[in-house]
Request: fold
Amino acid sequence: MSQLPSKTVTELLANWHAGDGEALRAVVPLVYDELRRVAHHYLQNERPGHTLQSTALVHEAYLRLEKQGAAEFKNREHFLAICAQLMRQILVEYARSRNAAKRDGGYRMTLDGSLAFKARSVDMVALDDALNELAKLDPQQSHIVELRFFGGLSIEETARALNLSPMTVKRHWATARLWLHHQMSKATDA
Amino acid sequence: MTPERWQEIRDVLEKALELAPGERPAFLERACSSDPSLRHEVETLLASSPDVRSSFLQSSALRVTLAPGTKLGEYEVKSLLGSGGMGEVYRARDSRLGRDVAIKVLPSFLSADSDRLRRFEQEARAAAALNHPNILAVHQMGTYEGAPYLVSELLEGETLREQIKHGRMAVRKAIDYGVQIARGLAAAHEKGIVHRDLKPENLFVTKDGRVKILDFGLAKLTQPQSGSEHSAPTLTEGTEAGVVMGTVGYMSPEQVRGEAADHRADIFAFGAILYEMLSGKRAFQKPTSPETMTAILNEDPPGISQVAPNLPPALQRVVHRCLEKNPEQRFQSASDLAFALDALSDSSGYSTSGVSGPRPRRGRMFWGIAASVVAIAVVGTAVLAWRSLHSRTADATPIHSIAVLPFANASKDPEMDYLGEGISEEITNSLSRLPNLQVMARSTVSHYKSRQDDPQGVGHDLHVDAVLTGRVVEHGGELNLETELVNVATGAQLWGERYTRNANEASVLQAAITRDVASQLRPQLSATERDSLAKVGTRDAEAYRFYLNGRYGLGNFAPESLKAAAGFFQQAVARDPRFAAAYAGLADAYALQGYFGYISGREPFEKARSAAQRSLELDNAISESHISLTMVDILYFWDFSEAEREIHDALVLDPNSAYAHEISCWFDADLGRVQEAQAECTRAVELDPFSSVYNSFLAQTYWIAHDGNRAVEQARKALELDRNSWFAVETLARAYEGAGSYSQAIEQWIKADQLEGDAAGSTETRRVFDKLGYTGFLRYKAKRAEVTRDYGGAAEAYAQLGERDEAFAVLEKAFVTRTDLFWVKPDPSLDNLRSDPRFADLLRRMGLPQ
Reply:
């Protein structure tokens, strides 16, 4: 907590709201550090029955930043969007390092923490690759998945963050998932 | 694929998705008439639609986590109360009725199967309609963004799992809870509703001691019943070793076999729960779920009389009758069961409600007598105690044991948290010097910190006769403290007092309270005795604060923790150079840092010895000084005759100090007095049952007694108390070695490496073991230990390999550094060396008696 200079965050966000795009880029590393700290805390204490939820992580990070005096987030969705993107990086990095450590490449993070339902686990690395492919076809759809899956945003929140109608988000979300699923099962079979 | 092509595919796909599956082929026929490959692409994607809809990417990242302020119908979410495998629970406000409720939101994939969901709703509604005091009242059900949710009454308390986490509960309480659970089940069974997933996690105990059964009907939704849908997630699928053990451990044999299960399945689960409440052990628990299931089918659990001695025979019979493999041989109804238990509580003189009726002084001891003559035993104990102690509280129950709850902070300032806890801890320490009074150790009591307003309940849980509570508030430089001493058996206030002091006089306040409490408990003490009891080492508030911080740091053997402790003690003695107890703490912090190799060489031990001697010069009437000197004598200087005198003095001064008994155990073990060591470590654990370190050492006393199985059992307990303790893990590794379970030992050695941050070491350990087996591992361990100058560890490994010369060579090095020969005499890993004259010679040179 102490390594996060709260004033800087507040100032940067104020500047961001004032239309300074650079300020947003500058705030990202700060948020990233905090998110990574929070996320690693959870990942390291991972244990059966422990619920790891990106949404919870994002909320916790948000609360911490808010406590630091950075309560100026007028636009919560934008903040969540940044978090979602960073959360993706963190989780994928984590999965990669775990894969490397296990050397079997088969590690799957069970995102819901409920290990009894193994079918729901997702291969983070494969998902990341597939999302990159999807971004080549339609960056917006890739974005939607990032926000929904990694950021835990609802349809409505996603719509607000991307300035789309909820209906559009819903439709794009459905087809993106079908495409990703197909893409990832192709990769597994290969 | 190009972006343009994807857009084409997506347009068709979106339209197809809006149609019912049956209408899609005709639509595709039309839409793709000119482009068969487009149709193929769309169909491929559609093919995985059912899978994708129910699960893919719908997991937790997408599980609905509701933000405060979210509205579900007329309920407004306020906060998240908790989350588990089956969804999150929120506190919410019912604006219409102006009350708070609990909302449980289930994972959205459960609603994918509408049939299943409907049946769940039916059953949950039926259970809710029962309106029974022992069943959670469900107000409403609904779905939110596809996730089913349940609105129920909001309960305050904890699950039964929490309550039994730390061991068995009082018999009377177990019977009381049992009767309540059985009544709830009876009400449900009468309406034809079976729970099917009864377990301690599904039983909730409210603050006022009422038990509520949760989650009726949920089992139907989450577990396949015989002949149910094939696509449902099953309990065993994805069940990795140990992961869902808690769930399978309460299944009835008929459920394990996948047969139809009726209400008697709940009675079996009830039996397993009652067994666990009474014994603190699970009836069926194996390392993996399949093994647990096999045990449920084929094995009887250990007789309850073995794991919980001295239960009334009738109660034993009730437990075992519930656990019959054949449903026909169990109780045939939950109301019969409730009746049998209730009768039992009456006949044994225990009321199941309220607090009237006699209560055992010490759970275990009492029952030893109770089986024969209850009344005489109670009267006898009381008279005896009355005569010897004669409490002037005019309360017929003498006080043999007490728990001091951390004093509550009545102000908003978190700084004050610390003060309340500090004062109550010092009172705990002082009171433990009273004769014939067992004082619960702080680490144990601190688990009950949140239950300030229920001293009687806490007292029951801890099996103590009295509980001291307090509230502290600082206002305008003035410290106000209210305190109350409660008789647990009667709930009566024995004594209460308000103190007002200047804010910097916390230590004076502590002395005053200790003196007053002592005179309540032991009126026959002379004024001098009371004063010496209440003696505080310092009048400097800051020094006192540093001291408390230091003591806290010593509770953990991690390098940073010990280092911080030393720093705090240094600050304490800098503020008050006459603060004896702080010097003792400083000595311990140095000695332990030296012993664990965090500071190398002779220096930390020299410093420890001077600090301990300084402490003794300042005050030789506190046990801490004597303990510190004992510790440095046995760990480094090998002055065993001084150690013997010192630890003896410490125990005379503080007969109920867990710490004194612990160090006494170390001393006995060092001298090879295995039985005595075991007794002393057992006493330390009795006085402070929740200390992982003390539990680990107790395990090691079994290990040196060559009782590997018991060592394993005990080490597991230590590990449960602190999952991240490398010391407990290493203890468990040794215990497994002792029990001859090498593959299990290796897992623990690897874990120990990981906990110590040696990832490379753990990988290598695994590789070596896989390739070369345990001897290969031992050789690797010996080499590695030599490099890291852990000569004791190297000697153990060489000795286990039978390589005596190498073993003695490294022991010689250990003799020079002096730091690795703790417990060398009884160490079972060195058994191969014991007949060698060089071993006897080593002991002789160390000054150890032969």
Q: What stands out?
A: The first helix of chain B runs from residue 3 to 18.
